[in-house]
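Structure tokens please, single chain.
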Amino acid sequence: LTEVVGSVFSMERLRGLSVSARERLSRLGYHNIVFNYGDGMQGWPGHAPYDGILVTAGTDALPPQLVAQLAPGGRLILPLGPTGRQDLIAMEKQADGRMTQRVLAPASFVPLLAGKA
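Here you go.
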């Protein structure tokens, strides 16, 4: 992502993984990433609105906080559905706030968990 967009904001639930990713990507020469650790269900309101949000853990319900942080015309990609029967979904926020969606592929991701670990 860092090679195709101006800035990337990365939210990780586990502090150690966030620190490890920051160090590794910095050594590889990627410097347009801002790292944080926290509750992915809450997103990162301090930098919203976002043109795109990519969620890499599955959830059975669309997190309203992420929708609220998405700019009009922005896209949200996430695995949606119960564990073991998810679909990778592409959603787009319309100017009136409605979300349109299309299924990209069947998927199976680890669950999106609330809270910091």
